[in-house]
Design a protein that fits this description.
Elements lengths: L6 H6 L16 E4 L2 E4 H9 L5 E6 L4 E6 L13 E4 L5 E4 L4 E4 L2 E4 L15
Antiparallel strand pairs: 1-2, 3-4, 5-6, 7-8
């Protein structure tokens, strides 16, 4: 709804960036360069000044790489949440407008249907 990335950050890190007001839930586990960590912990540590790198899918290189966290915070309270069930039996919970990279390109979570290959890492 409201942009949370300022123009300075966009200028410095605009190559391949996707900006969104969408969210993952705080209990989402991320793969960081320091090991697995909950999203809410990543945000807290980032706010304390720690430099954190999370595993991300780089579509240009067609592989997973660690990228630096540029910003993080609670953006919406009591937001609607959708759940995507994965083939491995796990799931990810996120807001309907969160973009997810699939075999069809970037799609909003609310538009994900069965049988899409999703690039979700280390869940």
């Amino acid at each position: 709804r409201y942009p949370r990335i300022d123009y300075r950050l966009l200028e410095e890190h605009n190559e391949g960036i996707i900006g969104s007001s969408a969210c993952l839930t705080g209990d989402t586990v991320l793969e960081t360069s320091s090991g697995r960590m909950r999203l809410d912990e990543v945000v807290d540590r980032w706010k304390e000044g720690e430099e954190i790198f999370v595993l991300s899918y780089d579509e240009k290189e067609n592989r997973a790489i660690h990228k630096k966290v540029l910003w993080g915070d609670l953006t919406r309270k009591k937001a609607k949440i959708v759940k995507i069930n994965l083939k491995n039996g796990k799931s990810v919970r996120l807001t309907p407008d969160h973009k997810v990279y699939t075999n069809k390109g970037w799609m909003e979570a609310k538009d994900i249907k069965e049988h899409k290959d999703i690039k979700i890492l280390s869940l």
